[in-house]
Design a protein that fits this description.
- By secondary structure, the protein is of the alpha/beta class.
- Helix content is 35%, strand content 18%.
- The strands form four sheets. Strands 4, 5, 7, 8, 9, 10, 11, 12, 14 and 15 form a ten-stranded mixed beta sheet that branches. It has a three-stranded antiparallel beta sheet with strand order 1-2-3. The protein has a three-stranded mixed beta sheet with strand order 6-17-18, with no helix packed on it.
- Strand 10, helix 9 and strand 11 form a beta-alpha-beta unit.
- The chain is globular, with a radius of gyration of 20 Å.
- The structure holds D-mannonic acid (CS2) and magnesium ion.
- Magnesium ion binds next to loops.
């Protein structure tokens, strides 16, 4: 028996907030889990500290599935990002412990190696065409072989995914990277018609400059109606995107039926979904080509593998959400799954800042456009508690989008 002796929530903010759970067993084995929910971090920290950790002490750390079901069904109030992030952190930490006890890198417990490495995509952005192309060149020089492209919109002072000044390796271009506004959410003005006019011209310029082969991705970030999404998908068909992401708000998955009827552009959705049950319609009707949930927001490795296996039955592949608001612990968990799953598609890889790397020591590697979790036992991540203490939590909010008439829109 590997009995849980203690568990601790570590909140640290090396440039952006992270919430990490560390579980320790009676024989001193430790496991880490990511519980970071961007903009609502303390909700998960308190859920863990006050409602979960008291239930863990004395449990057998090896019984991962039973602990998962105990925390999920025992809470009575199910699903949602806070609950599933808390359960995710426990789940990741227990898998970390189990793999350490087995003296294996975690992917070996998930079916072993199905590929030499996981194709990664980076984030390129620019306020205008020149800045966007420079950002793509920087990603290519950094070794990426697939790139997400987000551009500014003429007349818009700020747009999702585009930095207010030229992005650098240490200053990623989205609130996921840098800590979002501290006091109140920043307000971004959104104009769908301007966006629909401009994006195809930018993507065309990228194809013209970088050729037909480079896998390109674009994130619409939940902002379009089904008709607008269909228009965008159809306008991008000549440019052969790897995927068009989050075209419509996910509350109505059936909206994608209309989009699917009008465009062959591949669709990816789900980073704000947190349960395999949320994907019932999307996957069984093949309304998407890629499922996007992150291990940190979707109940951990146990549940994300169930989602991947469910998707595989319908020919749908994975594209796990990997922004810098998923900590290096969560990203490492993705890479172990990516290496083992047969229906892996692509892995988002926003490179964490140097300040974050001081807190989280990782063993994964990025070579020739591919990510590999490394051969260290467990998840392969350690946390420097002293470094973590040096970065105190600060409130951070994601932006809010408003239309020109002042009404709130999806950000
Ligand atoms: C984005 C995220 O990476 C993506 O696909 O949708 O960066 C998202 O904006 C952040 O995770 C929000 O915290
Ligand atoms: Mg996204």
């Amino acid at each position: 028996m590997t009995i849980i002796k203690s568990a601790e929530v570590i909140v640290t903010s090396p440039g952006r907030n992270f919430v990490t759970l560390q579980i320790t067993t009676e024989d001193g084995t430790t496991g880490l889990g990511d519980a970071t929910l961007n903009g609502r971090e303390l909700a998960v920290a308190v859920y863990l500290a006050d409602h979960v950790i008291p239930l863990l002490k004395g449990r057998d750390a090896m019984n991962i599935e039973d602990t998962w079901q105990y925390l999920y069904r025992g809470a009575y109030w199910r699903r949602g990002p806070v609950t599933m992030a808390a359960i995710a952190a426990v789940d990741m930490a227990l898998w970390d412990i189990k793999a350490k006890v087995a003296e294996l890198p975690m992917y070996q417990l998930l079916g072993g190696q199905s590929r030499t490495g996981a194709l990664a995509y980076g984030h390129a952005s620019g306020r205008d065409t020149e800045e966007l192309h420079d950002s793509i060149r920087a990603n290519l020089e950094a070794g990426f072989k697939a790139i997400r492209v987000q551009s500014g919109i003429p007349g818009a002072d700020s747009v999702y995914g585009v930095h207010s000044n030229a992005p650098t390796a240490d200053a990623p271009a989205t609130p996921a990277g840098a800590r979002a506004s501290r006091v109140l959410p920043e307000v971004e003005t959104w104009d769908t018609r301007a966006y629909l006019r401009h994006v195809p011209t930018e993507i065309e310029s990228v194809r013209h400059e970088f050729g037909a082969e480079l896998p390109l991705l674009h994130d619409a970030h939940h902002r379009l109606t089904p008709r607008e999404a269909a228009q965008l998908g159809r306008s991008l068909e000549p440019f052969d995107l790897f995927w068009l992401e989050d075209v419509t708000p996910i509350e109505d998955p059936t909206a994608l039926r209309y989009v699917r009827e009008h465009t062959t552009t591949p669709l990816a959705i789900g980073e704000v979904l947190n349960s395999v049950h949320d994907y019932q319609t999307l996957v069984t009707e093949r309304l998407v080509d890629y499922v996007r949930s992150a291990v940190t927001h979707t109940g951990g490795i146990t549940h994300l593998k169930k989602l991947a296996d469910f998707a595989s039955i319908y020919g749908v592949r994975t594209g796990f959400h990997g922004p810098t608001d998923v900590s290096p612990v969560g990203q490492a968990a993705h890479l172990h799954l990516d290496l083992a799953l047969h229906n892996f598609g692509i892995q988002e890889y926003m490179i964490h800042s140097e300040a974050t790397a001081e807190v989280f020591e990782t063993s994964f590697r990025f070579e020739d456009g591919l990510l590999h979790p490394g051969e260290r036992i467990g998840l392969g991540v350690e946390i420097d508690r002293e470094a973590a203490r040096r970065h105190a939590y600060e409130p951070g909010y994601l932006p809010v989008a408003r239309l020109h008439d002042g009404s709130v829109h999806d950000w």
